[in-house]
C-alpha cells in the first residue's frame, strides 16, 4: 500500500482499501488512514524513566543539609561528592552512546536503568564521605545511559519534524521527577529515615523495567504499529546504516557544535538540581519540611518550558521555516529568558526569587529540547547515539567544573550571585557557538 500523508494532521490516505484495522491505526469513512499513536507510548515510557532518573539524581540535594550536619561535610566535600557522580556520568555517557548504537536501545537502556537503580539504593549503606562518593559514582555510571538511549529512541521512532516535540515531552519527565522529589522524599526521610528513603524509591522504580523490555522494539520489529504509522515514522529520506567511528565524528564540526553547547548549558542545570535547595535554605530560611511548594512551582515552570520549546520549533517547521531557523530562533528566545536569573540572589521576597529561577529553568529546558535534536537533525541514525554520548561527556565535564566552582564560591564568598551570573550568560554563549560551528544545520557528509 502506498500512503499519501498530511503530516500536520496525522492523516494518511491509502490507494488500497483495508479489510480490517491494524492496532495503532483507524480507517475513516473516506478511506483515509489515521496515523496511530504507538510512537507516543514509547515517549511515555521514556518520560517515566526520566521521572525516576531525576528522583534518584536529585534526592541527595534535598538531604544535603541534614547529611552535612550528620557527617560534618563542608561545601567542598559536598562538591566532591557531586564531582564523583559527574565524572562517572561523563565517561558512562559517551560509552553508553556507543552501547546504544551497538546493541540497540531496548537492552542498552535496560542495562543503564538497572545499574543506576542499584547505585541509588547503595546510598542507604554509605556511612562516610567515601561511601557516598562510591554510591554516586555507580549512580552516575547508570544514569549516563538515559539520555543517549532516549535520544536514539526518538530518532528511531519519529520523523525529523516531530523530534523536538517528542524530545521536549520525554525531557519534561526530568521536571516531574524534580517535582516528585520534594513531595515524596521529605515524607519518607522524616517518617522512615534517609536510608529507607533510598531503598523505597529504588525498589518502587523497578516496576518500570519489565514494561520497557516487553514494549520496546525498533519500529519495523514492532507488532503494534500500523502501516500508516510506520510510513509516517520513515517519511524522512533514508540515511546510511554504515557504522561510523568516533574518530570520524570528532573531525566533523557539527559534533563540536552539539558538544560545546552541552558543555556550556549542562552545568547550569546541574547547579539548579544540586544546589537550589541549599540556596533556598540559606537565602530564604527553608528546610526539608518547607522546600516543597517553591520547588514544585520552579519545576512546573520547567515542564512548561520543555514542552513549549519543543512545540515552538516544531510549529515553525510545520509553517515552512527551515530546521536551522526554527531551532535557533527558539533557542534565542530561551536564552533571553534565562538572563534575569543573574539577579535571583538579590530578591528579598521568596516568590519573586522562585519566579525568576523558574523562568530560567524553563528557558534551560526549552533550549535543551532543541539542542538535543541537533544530532538527529544532521547526523545519520547510526551515529546519533555516539554524537549524543560525546556531547553528554562534555556536558558532564562542564558540570564537574561548575561543582568545584560552586563549592569554592560558597566556601570563600558565601553568596550565590557569581554562580547565577554564569547561569544568566551561558545560553547566549552556547547559541553563538552552535551557530558558529553549524551555521546552516544541514545533514552532514561524513568522509573517510
Structural commentary:
With about 450 residues, the chain is mainly alpha-helical. The protein has 17 helices and four strands. It has a four-stranded antiparallel beta sheet with strand order 1-2-4-3, with helices on one face. Strand 1 and strand 2 (about 10-15) form a beta hairpin. The radius of gyration is 22 Å and the shape is globular.
How many helices? The count is 17
Task: Determine the strand fraction and express it as a percent band.
Answer: under 5%
Q: What's the alpha carbon Rg, rounded to whole Å?
A: 22 Å
Residue stretches low in confidence (pLDDT < 50, at least 5 long) are: 1-25, 27-33
Write down the secondary-structure element order: EEEEHHHHHHHHHHHHHHHHH
Using DSSP, what is the number of strands? 4
Largest sheet: 4 strands, antiparallel
Lateral strand order in the biggest sheet: 1-2-4-3
Tell me the structural class.
mainly alpha
Overall 3D form: globular
Quaternary structure of the protein? single chain
How much helix, percentage-wise, in residues?
Answer: over 70%
Separation, N- and C-terminal Cα atoms: 38 Å
Amino acid at each position: 500500500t502506498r500512503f499519501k500523508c498530511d503530516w500536520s494532521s496525522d492523516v494518511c490516505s491509502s490507494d488500497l482499501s483495508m479489510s480490517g484495522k491494524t492496532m495503532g491505526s483507524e480507517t475513516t469513512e473516506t478511506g483515509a488512514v489515521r496515523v496511530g499513536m504507538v510512537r507516543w507510548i514509547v515517549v511515555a515510557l521514556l518520560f517515566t524513566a526520566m521521572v525516576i532518573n531525576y528522583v534518584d539524581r536529585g534526592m541527595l540535594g534535598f538531604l544535603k543539609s541534614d547529611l552535612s550536619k550528620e557527617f560534618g561535610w563542608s561545601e567542598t566535600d559536598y562538591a566532591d561528592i557531586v564531582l564523583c557522580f559527574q565524572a562517572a556520568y561523563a565517561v558512562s555517557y559517551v560509552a553508553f552512546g556507543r552501547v546504544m548504537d551497538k546493541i540497540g536501545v531496548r537492552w542498552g537502556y535496560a542495562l543503564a536503568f538497572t545499574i543506576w537503580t542499584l547505585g541509588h539504593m547503595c546510598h542507604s549503606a554509605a556511612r562516610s564521605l567515601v561511601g557516598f562518593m562510591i554510591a554516586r559514582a555507580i549512580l552516575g555510571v547508570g544514569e549516563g545511559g538515559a539520555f543517549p538511549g532516549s535520544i536514539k529512541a526518538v530518532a528511531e521512532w519519529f520523523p525529523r519534524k516531530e523530534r523536538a516535540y517528542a524530545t521536549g515531552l520525554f525531557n519534561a519527565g526530568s521536571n516531574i521527577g524534580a517535582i516528585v522529589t520534594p513531595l515524596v522524599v521529605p515524607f519518607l526521610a522524616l517518617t522512615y529515615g534517609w536510608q529507607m528513603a533510598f531503598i523505597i524509591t529504588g525498589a518502587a522504580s523497578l516496576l518500570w523495567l519489565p514494561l520497557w523490555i516487553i514494549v520496546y522494539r525498533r519500529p519495523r520489529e514492532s507488532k503494534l504499529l500500523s502501516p500508516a504509522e510506520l510510513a509516517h515514522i520513515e517519511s524522512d529520506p533514508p540515511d546510511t546504516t554504515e557504522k561510523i567511528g568516533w574518530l570520524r565524528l570528532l573531525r566533523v564540526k557539527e559534533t563540536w557544535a552539539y558538544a560545546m553547547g552541552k558543555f556550556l548549558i549542562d552545568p547550569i542545570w546541574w547547579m539548579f538540581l544540586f544546589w537550589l535547595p541549599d540556596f533556598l535554605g540559606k537565602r530564604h530560611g527553608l528546610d526539608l519540611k518547607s522546600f516543597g511548594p517553591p520547588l514544585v512551582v520552579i519545576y512546573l515552570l520547567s515542564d512548561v518550558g520543555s514542552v513549549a520549546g519543543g512545540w515552538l520549533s516544531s510549529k515553525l517547521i510545520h509553517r515552512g521555516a527551515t530546521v536551522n531557523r526554527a531551532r535557533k530562533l527558539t533557542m534565542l528566545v530561551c536564552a533571553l529568558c534565562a538572563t534575569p536569573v543573574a539577579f535571583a540572589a538579590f530578591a528579598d521576597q521568596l516568590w519573586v526569587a522562585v519566579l525568576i529561577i523558574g523562568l530560567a529553568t524553563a528557558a534551560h529546558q526549552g533550549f535543551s529540547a532543541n539542542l538535543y535534536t541537533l544530532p538527529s537533525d544532521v547526523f545519520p541514525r547510526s551515529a546519533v547515539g555516539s554524537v549524543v554520548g560525546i556531547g553528554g561527556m562534555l556536558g558532564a565535564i562542564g558540570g564537574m567544573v561548575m561543582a568545584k566552582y560552586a563549592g569554592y564560591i560558597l566556601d570563600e564568598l558565601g553568596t550565590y550571585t557569581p554562580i547565577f551570573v554564569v547561569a544568566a550568560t551561558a545560553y547566549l554563549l552556547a547559541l553563538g557557538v552552535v551557530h558558529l560551528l553549524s551555521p546552516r544545520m544541514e545533514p552532514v557528509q561524513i568522509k573517510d
